[in-house]
Amino acid sequence: MNAMQVSHYAHALYRSLGKYAEVEAAKRVRENEAAGKSEEARQWRAIQASIRSKRGPLQA
Hints:
- This protein is mainly α.
- It has one domain (3-55).
- The chain contains three helices and no strands.
């Protein structure tokens, strides 16, 4: 998955799940790591990072 695909998927996930999109991506990372699918876990980590950058800073 290239950077453009990661960004597109992250945007779609964020649009559909809102503030829970990053949680969903983290869940997918854990599931793939537990299943031994390191490449898929790496892709989900990239998606999670993209969602985090789209979300912006946390407010206190």
